[in-house]
Amino acid sequence: MTTAQLRQNGPLSPARHTMSKVPEVTALFWIIKVLTTGMGETASDYLAHVMDPMIAVALGGVALLAALAVQFAVRRYVAWIYWTGIVMVSVFGTMAADVLHVGLGVPYLVSTPFFLLALAAVFGVWFATERTLSIHSIHTRRREVFYWATVLATFALGTAAGDLTATTMSLGYLGSGIVFAALIAVPAVAHRWFGLGAIPSFWIAYVLTRPLGASFADWMAVSHDRGGLDLGLGPVTAGWTVAILALVGYLAATRRDVSR
Fold first, then answer.
1. Which of 36, 188, 197, 206 has the most Cβ atoms closer than 10 angstroms to its Cβ?
2. How many helices (H) and strands (E) does the chain have?
3. C-alpha closest to that of 92 among 44, 160, 148, 45
4. Spatial contact of 77 and 23, defined as CB atoms under 8 Å apart
């Protein structure tokens, strides 16, 4: 989904053009989004290995709150601030899903539907309150709260769904990544040829980016006996972080993702 398609499928306000808090939806948006999901997955796992998991969760929560506080404080979209928030959501969303499974013993067959219901609840309240789920209507504080609550829910759901297919369903990380690479094309096809609206297409694809990126990142990081390339959590996290920094730096310099 692109910005032009999304604009055709939801009510907009002129205020958005003077107070935009989200980027334009371009090819680079989707590439960076997938990179943040993979980086968040391996970064979360790496932190849980090098420090006490509970301390890692606490630090992740503090970092997330700090990033969102800055995001809410600015009056317009700023590439570095926005994508830092997304990265922190990715790391903490992974931790939240892992705590349910590893810490509390909740199986992925339970946590995945739970996060799906949580996401549906956020969407339901958002739409009932604002009458739109368009990301290009984020020009009030309340809509911004709904937006970031949705983002957090999509990351937690995507994490659980990716682990469900990779481990519980025994597809492995590479197999899981291939499955989600195919699935992410479904909303685009449904929108292009079968009349699915741009807004639901966008959010379906947005959810699927999480298990897509996380599956391939895990495949690169985990050991050979787990079906991976055994590159290590630290190096994979660093490599994906460099890619994110380069692309976000490009957007910050060119402002190609800023509404004009």
1. 36
2. 10, 0
3. 44
4. yes
Q: What burial class does residue 95 get, using C-beta atoms within 10 Å of its C-beta: 0-12 exposed, 13-18 middle, 19+ buried?
A: buried
Q: What is residue 125's predicted lDDT score, i.e. its pLDDT?
A: 97
Distance CA 117, CA 223 (A): 34
Residues of the chain with pLDDT under 50: 10-18
Q: What is the DSSP letter of 245?
A: H
Contacts of 16 (CB under 8 A, 6+ apart): 136, 137, 138, 139, 259
Predicted pLDDT at 6? 63
pTM as predicted: 0.89
Count Cα neighbours of 230 within 13 Å in the Cβ-side half-sphere.
5
What residue segments make up the domains of the chain, in order of their start? 21-253
Q: Do residues 234 and 46 lie in contact, with contact meaning Cβ atoms separated by under 8 Å?
A: yes
Tens-digit pLDDT profile for residues 130-149: 999 998 888 889 999 999 99
By residue count, the chain amounts to: 260
Contact 115, 149 (CB under 8 A): no
Sign of the Cα torsion 145, 146, 152, 156 reads: positive
